[in-house]
Design goal:
The protein has a single domain (2-307, 390-499), classed as Amidase signature (AS) domain (Amidase signature (AS) enzymes, Alpha-Beta Complex). It contains 18 helices and 11 strands. Helix content is 41%, strand content 11%. Helix 3 (23-41) packs antiparallel against helix 4, helix 11 (310-325) packs across helix 13 (360-373) and helix 11 crosses helix 14 (379-400).
């Protein structure tokens, strides 16, 4: 089992094409793996064994007839529970949507179905994608497979943990301020935030419309490129969708894997390093920068002054949009309804339902957003935050006039202990310090494993950022760096950690 489970999605696709295995065999292996370890990890909220095996059998029938739909046809995948799925619950990690089964598929879900990828199930997440640790799920936290007393990042910790624990070779996540890349950094996986609008958001339960983006979670850069190309492209159902085709990513990843970065200019972001960043994280980051130089890249320091204000701007813009988006959960149309005793009014029902259905973090952000948008405060808070956003976009433009890609650590620290920051929201928000600017500007970003900390043995991530619609640059440079760094952890060592309660 371990030989197949350890293979990348690209390798599994090759094995399927060569007739060395079947989709049913692969899907059953991953379902068995989920049954064996997810009781500890809790990466999944819903598992669809019957549906996945039916989809796998259909894939095998197509291959037998020479009618494979896509290179990844038959390779299983997990889906973050913020994406709508026909026949499967979509809870967004919230009691507010407990048991809700959508009548339609998100566009990205339809695309993976149309390509023949069996869906193993829906992964755990911070409620309505609000959090950096997956501790704000109404259904309990996900644990980091590397060390079970540590967080797997958030809000998409379930997808990252599923891939890191070899419970799935591929997963879909969403990234609003780092919710794919930060979990990737702390679980040793590859996480990509595509250019805003290049992957459809139709069917993504919105947190913040101007920031949310669907993207791949994988164990290799090539796997991310394969999945990114599959889910990318124009969607007439999404008014923010770009018309530029998403192509060349796989070719860029394959080219980068040769290790030649001659002619590539890389900018080290001055404002995303130094004080406030854990020494073990900076040590691995500096090693990665040295490797880029050895691979032939021209590395220089780049200053982006407005990035220092990115988090403050983000935590005004995001709550404002969140407050607006979550207003629809009013107990009138769908979702949880709590009816108080007596003769309650519609307002009483709404108040009781939202109080019972939303967790503390969601309530906190709704209050912040409502305040920022209120009369007399709009210009002072939300309006000023949007001006900072414009400065961040301008800083990106200036930086990319000097270099091809930017580089920084992905997260200020390795995975912290479960519960360590729950009572300190600001400390929790700081985990997205390096990832937030890309969401504010709409630029693409990727986090790849930079090795493990010499201090605690946990993964460290390095982030690459590219100009809007230049996602291929991330794959070329990311694949080259990945090849130079090498794999961070195999299945056998991970299982030793899990057997020891994740404490090894």
């Amino acid at each position: 089992m371990s030989e197949l489970i350890q293979k990348s999605a690209a390798e599994l696709a090759d094995a399927l094409a060569a007739g060395e295995t079947t989709s049913v065999e692969l899907t059953q292996l991953y379902l068995d793996r989920i049954a064996a370890v997810d009781g500890e990890v809790h990466a999944f909220l819903h598992i669809d064994a019957e549906g996945a095996l039916e989809q796998a059998a259909a894939s095998d029938a197509r291959r037998a007839n020479g009618d494979a739909l896509h290179a990844l046809d038959g390779v299983p995948i997990a889906v973050k529970d913020v994406l709508t799925t026909i026949g499967l619950p979509t809870t967004c990690g919230s009691k507010m949507l407990e048991g809700w089964v959508p009548p339609y598929d998100a566009t990205v879900v339809k695309k993976i179905k149309d390509a023949g990828l069996p869906i193993l199930g829906k992964t755990n997440m911070d409620e309505f994608a609000m959090g950096s640790s997956t501790e704000h799920s109404a259904y309990g936290p996900t644990k980091n497979p590397w060390k079970l007393d540590r967080i797997p990042g958030g809000s998409g910790g379930g997808s990252a943990a599923a891939v890191a624990a070899f419970e799935a070779p591929l997963a879909l996540g969403t990234d609003t301020g780092g919710s794919i890349r930060q979990p990737g950094a702390v679980t040793g996986t590859v996480g990509v935030k595509p250019t805003y609008g290049s992957v459809s958001r139709y069917g993504l339960v919105a947190l913040a419309n101007s920031l949310d983006q669907v993207g791949p979670v994988t164990r290799t850069v090539l796997d991310s490129a394969l999945l990114h190309e599959l889910i990318g492209g124009h969607d007439p159902l999404d008014s923010t969708s770009t018309t530029t085709p998403v192509t060349g990513l796989v070719d860029a990843a394959r080219a980068g894997a040769t290790g030649d970065l001659k002619g590539v200019k890389v900018g080290v972001i001055k404002e995303l390093a130094g004080e406030g960043w854990a020494p073990d994280v900076m040590a691995k980051f500096n090693e990665s920068v040295d490797l880029l130089t050895k691979l032939g890249a021209d590395v220089v320091e780049v200053s982006t002054p407005s990035f220092e204000h990115a988090m403050a701007a983000y935590y005004l813009i995001l709550p404002a949009e969140c407050s607006s988006n979550l207003a629809k959960f009013d107990a009138m149309r769908y979702g949880l309804r709590v009816t108080p005793d007596g003769d309650p009014s519609a307002e009483d029902v709404m108040k009781a339902s939202r109080d019972a259905g939303f967790g503390d973090e969601v309530k906190r952000r709704i209050i912040l957003g409502t305040y920022a948008l209120s009369s007399g405060y709009y210009d002072a808070y939300y309006g000023q935050a949007q001006k900072i956003r414009t400065l961040i976009i301008e800083d990106f433009k200036k930086a990319f006039e000097q270099v091809d890609v930017l580089v920084s650590p992905t997260s200020p620290s390795t995975a912290f202990k479960l519960g360590a920051k729950l009572d300190d929201p600001l400390a929790m928000y700081m985990q997205d310090l390096a990832t937030i600017p890309a969401n504010l500007a709409g630029t693409p970003g990727i986090s790849i494993p930079a090795g493990v900390s010499d201090q605690d043995g946990l993964p460290v991530g390095v982030q690459l950022l590219a100009p809007v619609l230049e996602d291929a640059r991330l794959y070329r440079v990311g694949a080259a760096l990945e090849a130079a760094i090498g794999p961070v952890l195999g299945l056998d060592k991970l299982d030793d950690r899990l057997a020891a309660g994740g404490a090894a």
